[in-house]
Amino acid sequence: MDAAFTEEQHTIRRTLRTLLDKRCGPDEVKAAVRTPPGYDEELWRELAGRLHLPGLALPAVYGGAGRGPTELALACAETGRTVLPSPLIATAALAAPLILALGSERQRAGLLPALASGELTGTLAVPGGRLPTALALTGPNDGDWAGGGRAGGIQAHKEEGGTGWRLYGEAGQVLNGHTAEVLVVAAHTGGFARSSTRLFLVRADGAAGAVGLRRTRQAVMDETRPQARLELRDVPAELLGEEGGRTASAVGPALAATGVAAAAALAVEAVGAAGAALAGTAAYVGERERFGRPVGSCQAVRRRLADLYVTLQAARSAAYHAAWTAGRGPLAADGSSGAYGSGPGPTGRAGERGTAVLALAQALEALRAVAAEAVQLPGGIGFGWERAAQLYFTRAAGDELLLGPAHRLRARAVEEAGLFAGAGRGAGRTAGLPAGVDA
């Protein structure tokens, strides 16, 4: 593995850092999250138009920059450093890869250029708050997580005498779900007889949105990741991919492969946030004086900062390795290889499928540890909302609630690696953990 960044990767990071340093300070972040969309729309247009951020990992034939998951993840290190509120993860790491992997040529040509340019934003809607399950981050996604024919999920049925589909149900914790114009919705089809999970496209353009669709922004711990509840009442939808094509059998692998690239991006984003929080904390304790000398000169404080530095560096190494692994395969136009496919590329080998999941767990734990000290070490002032430390603290807690918890991510990585395949089967024990250890 060559861990050195290319000159192009350095350029992406430098350019993005310069822009975000000017436009995305703590005060700007707090102002942006209180707007109706939950992010600075003008800054998003600049990131999309000037830096092509949402299209960074999309092929040039669909209006993208022709790079890959590695470059997208490295860009996320800078967005994490400033705790940027934006639809980047929802659009570039969730919706666009699935459309690329499963969509028909007409759907790709019609949607991906607009997503790449930032003209449209997208997201993935999964019922029951089961995003980690759908992406195979906390367990296999071959179950009935989309509804299984029961209440509480999202059901899809064909229109009578037509080729269209209708969706009925609800989904919560949908990233940027209240503003995304393109919704990739996971729904259950076939009842009990021919049960399957399919992905559908719902266009929510315009102020009114799709007929029968109600979107409500939810109150969440981390306001920099706005989430919404979607209620679908006979909403018209379009099957992602060709009718009768390979989508039924390919949905699970495509979601799992998308989860690999998304986990790598989120891991790098988390270590970017942790690095900024640690740097800010070290600077503060170096300046703040107590009993006539800087707080940072105390041996106990220095030891705690050193422990955090070691934890962060280990998490950063794992996250960058996951980003490198996710981008090893060539990015075909149909997304059939690399991080967007389930073939013989790096995401298809059992020894590497858990790399991104394990890196995400380690990054979330590092961010949690650093953010906690960023609040505690500055003393009472660390608990004030006016301090930037609160942004990192809520990001750490919110990400683990949305994607984890970390111990289940680790259990999934262990299961993928097959480390305890021969362990005894304890009743109620989480798969992948050694005997006698519960999740």
Ordered list of secondary-structure elements with their pairings:
Layout: H1 7-23, H2 26-32, H3 41-51, H4 69-81, H5 88-102, H6 105-117, E1 122-125, H7 131-134, E2 154-158, E3 165-175, E4 182-189, E5 196-203, E6 213-217, E7 227-239, H8 247-287, E8 289-290, E9 293-294, H9 299-326, H10 350-353, H11 355-376, H12 389-403, H13 406-417
Parallel strand pairs: 1-4
Antiparallel strand pairs: 2-3, 3-7, 4-5, 5-7, 6-7, 8-9
Helix pairs in contact: 1-4, 4-8, 4-9, 5-6, 5-8, 8-9, 8-11, 9-11, 11-12, 11-13
Please characterize this protein's 3D structure.
With 439 residues, the protein is of the alpha+beta class. It folds into 3 domains: 7-90 and 105-120, Orthogonal Bundle (Butyryl-Coa Dehydrogenase, subunit A, domain 1); 123-247, Butyryl-CoA Dehydrogenase, subunit A, domain 2, CATH 2.40.110.10; 248-417, Up-down Bundle (Butyryl-CoA Dehydrogenase, subunit A, domain 3), CATH 1.20.140.10. The protein is 46% helix and 13% strand. The protein has helices at residues 7-23, 26-32, 41-51, 69-81, 88-102, 105-117, 131-134, 247-287, 299-326, 350-353, 355-376, 389-403, 406-417, and strands spanning 122-125, 154-158, 165-175, 182-189, 196-203, 213-217, 227-239, 289-290, 293-294. Strands 1, 2, 3, 4, 5, 6 and 7 form a 7-stranded mixed beta sheet that branches. The protein has a two-stranded antiparallel ribbon with strand order 8-9. Helix 4 (69-81) packs parallel to helix 8 and helix 5 packs antiparallel against helix 6 (105-117). It is globular. Mean pLDDT is 84; it is low at 330-351 and 424-439. Residues 6-119 form the Acyl-CoA dehydrogenase/oxidase N-terminal domain. It comes from Streptomyces siderophoricus. InterPro entries: Acyl-CoA_Oxase/DH_mid-dom_sf, AcylCo_DH-like_C, AcylCo_DH/oxidase_C, AcylCoA_DH/ox_N, AcylCoA_DH/ox_N_sf, AcylCoA_DH/oxidase_NM_dom_sf. This is Acyl-CoA/acyl-ACP dehydrogenase. Keywords: FAD, Flavoprotein, Oxidoreductase.
